[in-house]
Automatic annotation (TrEMBL):
Alphabetical list of Pfam families matching this protein: TPR_16 (PF13432)
InterPro entries in alphabetical order: TPR-like_helical_dom_sf
Highest taxon above the source species: Bacteria
Record's signal peptide: 1-28
Organism this protein belongs to: Sphingosinicella microcystinivorans
Sorted UniProt keywords: Signal
UniProt name for this protein: Tetratricopeptide repeat protein
């Protein structure tokens, strides 16, 4: 009676299938085998199945795969132990690889898993191969089933979790896809590992394309906290402005953040910011933005509409700035905080952050103002002056609605890599 070789599973330990293409098992060099030969695995076969398995192996080694498969089927019918079933499927996989038969390969992989005899490392390799075969067939439900099983057993394997997220997306289950990729990001963070920028961008792209309003902003904030590049800041803030329906005051605070993160790029950005500031009575801030845009080559004063805005804004600046002390006196005497808030806005536009904070706080004390808006601007002024703790407290005081989202973006800037130092300030 022929015995089944205890080294017959070399295929299994080296099996790899790359995105639907079957790959033959790697064979170690003889020298490497001698130097690092693992302890031979011991199997427990039933007598009846062992005879059929031995004959199947001998036939397969001779290249008579069809006859070997007949013996494998015979062994499966006689199988009593987990190792009987495992070895039958092991030989089946070898034949499938030789015949380039993906259906038989999937059967052998699943059978090896179901036998209960595969090691954890082997099982994961078999599952990955099954998932790749399912993707090749465009059988997304089957791929999801395999990925869910892998993730259930390896919840801290972030790459597997991302793979599951991509499968959910293929199936049109976009909210689950975004949430799953977010889990993968958090798993890597918890392990102290760097998270690829592409993962953050993928989560954001899926949320945005899927019109998932509740997931777009968290995904945006996660991206710029981890990778606070000017390009990323521009992308997330353009998306935020596009999807949030902000009023002029909200837009102004978002454009201020774009300015501070160097996310303003072309003519349209600088012109819109300057024009919005001027419309809100902030001539000094408008002039500073025009000057910044001009110095960076984003604005050209030779263009008629830019020239016109310059001609409107420039004459206002001297008188506007000179009026602030008298407006401050009126604000202190006013029964409500509205004038104090307006005066603080003026000081903020000229980069006088300490004075702006003082008057914003007076506005809150007197009342009659939008507390969320005022706290946002206290946070901006404190962030620009380098008071991180104070800025955090102010932004955290903003609760509810789009204002809370604006504050979260400012907090992300404050707490991102290098974000404690403002990129630039309007003055």
């Amino acid at each position: 009676m022929k015995m089944v070789s205890r080294t017959a599973l070399g295929f299994a330990l080296a099996l790899g299938i790359a995105s639907g293409a079957m790959v033959a098992p790697a064979v170690a060099k003889e020298k490497d085998k001698k130097e690092a030969a693992p302890e031979a695995r011991k199997f427990k076969f039933s007598k009846k199945a062992q005879k059929a398995l031995g004959e199947a192996q001998a036939l397969q080694q001779k290249g008579d795969n069809d006859a070997a498969l007949v013996k494998i089927r015979e062994a499966e019918a006689l199988a009593e132990t987990p190792d009987d079933k495992y070895m039958a499927n092991a030989l089946k996989i070898n034949i499938a690889l030789a015949k380039q038969d993906n259906a038989m390969l999937a059967e052998g992989l699943q059978g090896s898993i179901d036998s209960g005899s595969s090691t954890p490392e082997e099982k994961l390799k078999f599952q990955r191969s099954l998932a790749a075969l399912a993707v090749q067939k465009n059988d997304v439900p089957a791929a999801i089933k395999v990925y869910e099983a892998m993730v259930a057993e390896h919840p801290n394997d972030a790459d597997l979790v991302v793979g599951l997220g991509e499968m959910y997306n293929r199936a049109g289950r976009t909210p689950e896809a975004v949430a799953t990729i977010d889990k993968a990001i958090k798993a890597k963070q918890a392990a102290g590992q760097a998270v690829e920028e592409s993962w953050y961008k993928r989560a954001l792209a899926l949320a945005y394309d899927g019109k998932l309003a509740n997931q777009v902003t968290p995904a945006s904030i996660a991206l710029v906290q981890a990778y606070p590049t000017p390009t990323n800041w521009r992308d997330v803030l353009v998306i935020f402005r596009e999807t949030s329906g902000l009023d002029d005051q909200g837009n102004l605070d978002v454009m201020r953040l774009m300015y501070d993160t160097n996310a303003l790029t072309g003519e349209r950005d600088y012109f819109e910011y300057a024009e919005t500031a001027d419309k809100r009575g902030l001539a000094g801030e408008a002039k500073s933005v025009i000057d910044a845009g001009t110095s960076k080559g984003a604005l050209s004063t030779s263009k008629a509409y830019v020239k016109e805005l310059v001609s409107i804004v420039t004459p206002k600046v001297k008188g506007d700035r000179g009026s602030l002390p008298s407006l401050e006196k009126e604000a202190r005497a006013d029964k409500t905080g509205r004038m104090a808030k307006a005066t603080a806005d003026g000081y903020l536009g000229y980069g006088e952050n300490a004075k702006a904070v003082e008057l914003y706080r007076l506005a809150l004390q007197k009342g009659g103002v939008d507390a969320a808006e005022v706290n946002t601007r206290i946070g901006i002024a404190l962030a620009r002056s380098g008071d991180k703790a104070g800025a955090e407290a102010a932004f955290n005081a903003v609760q509810g609605g789009k204002r809370a989202d604006i504050a979260k973006f400012w907090l992300a800037h404050l707490n991102s890599k290098g974000g404690t130092q403002t990129a630039s300030t309007v003055n």
